[in-house]
Amino acid sequence: MAFCKFCGKEISEGTVCEDCAKKNAAEGNAAADDSTLGGAASGGLDQIKKLLPVCAAVVVVLIILIALLGGGGAKGAVKDFTKGMTSKSGAKKYYSATLLDDVIKEIKDDDDWDEMIEDWNDNTEDMLDDAKIKVKKIEKKGKLSNKECKAAEEFFENQADQYDADVDDIDVKKGYEYRVKMQYKEDGDKDTHSEKVCVVKVKGDGWKVIPLDADDLVDYYGD
Asked: What pLDDT score was predicted for residue 116?
C-alpha cells in the first residue's frame, strides 16, 4: 500500500489520491481565471489611458464650438444689438442689450415695457419696408481704457436716473469698442455704412452695449 503525499490518505500502489487530484484541478482553474481577469483589467486600463487624450481633445472642441455657435460674451451682445436694429421684431433684443436689468425691471413695474416694445418694432418695421439692412461684419477694434470704463459707468448711472431705477453702484472693469459694418439696399441701390459702439461688462448685469464710440463716450460722460 502507499499513502498520498498531500493528505496522507492510504491509496493503492501506482495511483493518485482522487480527492487531492480534484482539489488541485479546481485550484488550477481558479488561478487561470484570476490571471485572465487580471490581464483583461490591465488591458482595459491601457485602453482608458489611450483614450484620455482623445477625450480631452473632444472637450476642447466642444468648448470652441459653444463659443463660436452659442454667441455670448461681448460680441454676442453686439450681435443682439444689431439684430434688434435690423429685425421687425427685435425690440426685446435691442433693449436687453442696451438697458440695465434693474432698469428693465423698473420699466415693467411701471407697465411701460409692452408699449416700448411695440413702438420700437413699429418704427423698425416702417424703416425696413423702405430699405433692407444687412449686417456684413462685426469686428473688435480695441480694449477700452480705465477712463472709458469710468465714462461707461456714468452712462449707465444716467440711464438709471432717466428711468427712476434703484440701481446699486455700477461697476465696469472692462470693455471693448466694436465696429459694425452694415449694408443698406433701397430701390436697387446699395450703400455700406459703419458704426462704432462700445460694449462693457457691468458687474451683475453682464455685457451691455452703449451706442456710442469710445471718443463720444468720454466726451459726453467723462469727467
From this structure: 94
Q: What gap in Å lies between CA 100 and CA 121, rounded to an integer?
A: 20
Of 142, 137, 129, 86, nearest to 97 by C-alpha is 86
Q: Are 195 and 182 spatial neighbours (Cβ–Cβ below 8 Å)?
A: yes
Specify burial of residue 105 (Cβ count, 10 A radius: 0-12, 13-18, 19+). Answer: middle
Return d(Cα 30, Cα 213) in angstroms, integer: 79
Distance in angstroms (rounded) separating the CA atoms of residues 58 and 50: 14
Q: Are the CB atoms for 79 and 71 separated by under 8 Å?
A: yes
φ and ψ at residue 131, rounded to 5 degrees: -145, 150
pTM for this entry: 0.67
Question: Measuring CA to CA, how many Å separate 81 from each of 67, 69, 149, 199, 215?
Answer: 18, 17, 19, 10, 20
How far is the C-alpha of 66 from the C-alpha of 60, rounded, in Å?
A: 10
76 vs 41, which has greater pLDDT? 76
Query: CB-side exposure of 14: number of CA atoms within 13 Å?
Result: 0
> How big, in percent rounded to 5, are the helix, strand and coil portions of the chain?
55, 20, 20
One DSSP character per residue, 38-89 reads HHHHHHHHHHHHHHHHHHHHHHHHHHHHHHHHS--HHHHHHHHHHHHHHSTT
